[in-house]
Batch of 2 targets.
Target 1
Amino acid sequence: MKISSASSPSVSIAPQAGGAAAAPAAAPVAAPAGNDALESAVLQPAQKALGALPDFDAARVAELRDALAKGELPFDAGRLAGLIQRFHGSKA
């Protein structure tokens, strides 16, 4: 197969008026109206399950992070690697 530099791109990108600074940072893309009901039906069980989960204790996470950084919390990298391998399964 020969690739020549004379071919034109199949997609053209035109600059917008006003440049990038004028564009909103996170403009939502409008979905077709028929997808709203489907998304709602799909997302509602997930939202309900997330609502049932307990909130994490940010203070406890910070406490454990500090203890780990100070060396007060034992850490066994080999054991962690074994647990990860067991969880994800061995490919060998």
Target 2
Amino acid sequence: MKKLVLMAVAIAAVSFASCGNKAADAAKATADSIRIADSIAAVEAAAAEAAAQATDTTAVADSAATETVAE
């Protein structure tokens, strides 16, 4: 009987230990998600800026070529 009680106490202790602090884990997961989303947004903004600069450079080169031909 003592062994059964000890086994039940051991199982209860392990189950409480495995639960951990879920609030802290959730906060860490939220912070990680925000950090990743910010990183993705920064990369997308840089790509959009590079695309805009490439478009501007192409437009300037095309207009310069058109002006040269028109003269």
